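User: Please predict the structure of the protein below. I'd like the answer in structure-token form so I can feed it into my own downstream comparison script.

Assistant: Understood. Taking the following sequence of 147 residues as input:
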Amino acid sequence: MRAPAAKCGSEAWVMVLTEYPEAYVVIRLSPEDEVPSWATRGRFTSITRTPEELSVICPEHSIPTTQSAERGWYLLGCDGPFSFDTVGILAELTAVLSKANISLLAIATYDTDYILTRDQTAARAALKNAGHEIVFRGSSEGTPPKE
């Protein structure tokens, strides 16, 4: 079942999340830096420029070994697209993970929302225990990653 179109209120709803098996990195570059060519490789990349930084999230295997980065993040994507007036998607996911003491990084795109966590196993368990469904994408699509 997809999230309700407008708001979830007290209604119980189930999110379908896609888990991507590869590890991701979060990198902070100078705001005036060019986007590195390695940053755009892989199935998921997020690039955000602010006055304070150029932030890159990309697969860990894409970056040079000498690149300073926050490594070991795992990606979950909400099964969208969602209407822009949909309320409560990230609130639901962050509440579940917060109760399990799991930190996250959230990213929104035009169609959907993504979260990255460092503890893939604990995040998966917490979300499943809250009634959400997780599907897997990658070389062994449909099969959960090995613990």
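That's the full token string. The chain has one domain: 16-136.
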